[in-house]
Amino acid sequence: MKEKLITILPKMQRFARILTGSRDAADDLVQQACERLLKKPEAYDGILCLESWMYKVIHNAWIDEKRSMRNKLSEPIEAGLEIAGENGEHTIGVRSTLAKVRLEMAKLPVEQRAALMLVCVEGMSYQEAAGVLAIPVGTLMSRLARARLALASRMRQSQAGEGSRLVQNIG
Asked: What is the Cβ-side half-sphere exposure of residue 160, based on CA atoms within 13 angstroms?
């Protein structure tokens, strides 16, 4: 169980970070979820899919935190843009695009960010993601469609803005 938990830890941290927008708060959520599982290892026997169960625990813990207003942002999501890679023009382009996507994604409502993260980044089925978020599949599909459209629109606007700034700088 511990080995499986260690392998899914990066996914849990990414998901928690998308929910909270804060590295510190995300780490706290993941720690709570791990602690809950490790305190009662016998409960692991009844879990069919540890990954889905952990997503659900993290999501529920985040909702609890949000409701109690104990969740304070200590670091913006933009602070996590450090990405390991090779030096070069390609790496710079990839980093720049990824940074833009993260910035624009952070502007989406949290419900849309969570849907995008689970389906598009983590590769969950609609049914699995809807179960984690405790919403109907139709609601998930609606949130996902709105999130994709909004993100695509924001990325187009961002690229158009860059082009006009470049022309202004050259002229």
From this structure: 6
129's tokens: 């993601």
* pLDDT recorded at residue 137: 94
Segment 30-47, tens digit of pLDDT: 998 888 888 877 766 667
Per residue in 26-54, is it b (16+ CB within 10 Å) or e — as a string?
bebbbebbbebbeeeeeeeeeeeeebbbb
pTM of the model: 0.56
- Token representation of residue 104: 């624009």
- HSE-CB at 82 with a 13 A cutoff on CA atoms is 3
Q: What is the DSSP letter of 13?
A: H
* Nearest-angstrom CA–CA distance, 51 and 5: 8
Do 71 and 100 contact (CB within 8 A), yes or no?
A: no
| CB distance 15 to 123 below 8 Å | no
Asked whether 38 and 59 are in contact (CB, 8 A), the reply is: no
